[in-house]
Design brief:
It is built from ten helices and two strands. It has about 300 residues and is mainly alpha-helical.
Length: about 300
């Protein structure tokens, strides 16, 4: 019986050691995991904020398309010209500004949270509710921006149902062929006839007005100036194509304008990442509140 009793005591000590080790392990794991999770989320949110800041155009046609000049069209115009009309503002850029501000606010809040002593600070219920409401509003705002980008980039930009108001590059891609080369961005906006470079040779040799008028009917949609309201007015295309096509350029609806196409793709990805980070930060911070303040017990 003695060996059996000794074995039983040995096994009992092992069980106690295991329980103690596991409890200490989970206590250490919970504390270190919370700290590391909030730090990683802070780093990721700050990185997203920095990406927003460095992605904004501060000058050029992506910022103000009316600053574009083109000698073929005759831009810029005199101030008293009848076609000297302004194009629409870059709504995609404005949405990106809002997303960047939201990302900056979330980053600042996480910094304040990380430098605040947790156990020595009282956490009133009012603060928790305010944080929850702010997080919900930020999530709703970013989600609305993502929805606007999806509706414009994936629906409006790809809709060739009518000539007026639709992007000419979309009509060419959907009704004729894919645009695989920049030379395909030079076509007739109504008939979708691809420009033939030999027309310039005929113009130089014959110097006839008919060839000159024929060449003017084609538009180079790799050039931002052709999307402006002033260009549409000068080319007498307002009645057929619409008063303004600047949104096609601002939203990067075609690879003919790669500068805005990839810029909008970047903003779309950053908006999705920001929404995920807002939700993750809220979950981690609320989880720390429940564990550190022992709300479950109280």
């Amino acid at each position: 019986m003695y060996p059996n009793r000794k074995m039983q005591n040995y096994l009992a000590n092992i069980r106690i050691f295991k329980k103690t080790s596991i409890s200490y392990y989970f206590m250490f794991f919970n504390s270190t995991t919370m700290v590391s999770s909030s730090s990683v989320l802070l780093f990721c949110t700050a990185a997203v904020t920095g990406m927003y800041a460095f992605s904004y155009p501060l000058y050029g046609t992506a910022y103000d398309i009316d600053s574009a000049s083109n000698y073929r069209i005759g831009l810029p115009l005199q101030p008293d010209d009848a076609c000297n009309v302004s194009s629409e503002a870059n709504m995609s850029l404005r949405l990106a500004w809002v997303s960047g501000i939201v990302s900056l606010v979330i980053t600042i809040l996480i910094v304040i949270y990380n430098i605040t002593p947790k156990k020595s600070t009282n956490w009133p219920v009012q603060i928790i509710w305010m944080t929850s409401v702010l997080s919900f509003l930020c999530q709703l705002l970013v989600f609305s921006i993502i929805t606007a980008r999806i509706s414009t980039w994936f629906l409006s930009c790809t809709n060739p149902s009518k000539i007026e108001g639709a992007c000419p590059t979309t009509r060419y891609k959907e009704l004729k062929s894919d645009i695989t080369d920049i030379e395909q961005c030079n076509f007739h906006p109504i008939t979708l006839t691809l420009f033939n470079s030999e027309n310039d040779l005929f113009l130089d040799c014959l110097n006839e007005q008919s060839f000159s008028n024929y060449n003017r009917e084609f538009a180079r949609y790799d050039v931002p100036a052709y999307y402006t309201a002033a260009a549409l007015c000068l080319r007498n295309e307002t009645a057929t194509l619409g008063a303004d096509l600047s949104w096609c350029y601002f939203w990067g609806c075609s690879t003919c304008t790669p500068e805005t196409y990839y810029m909008n793709a970047k903003w779309f990805g950053l908006d999705i990442a920001l929404l995920i980070l807002i939700v993750a930060n809220y979950i981690v911070i609320m989880g720390e509140f429940y564990v550190i303040q022992d709300v479950k017990v109280n």
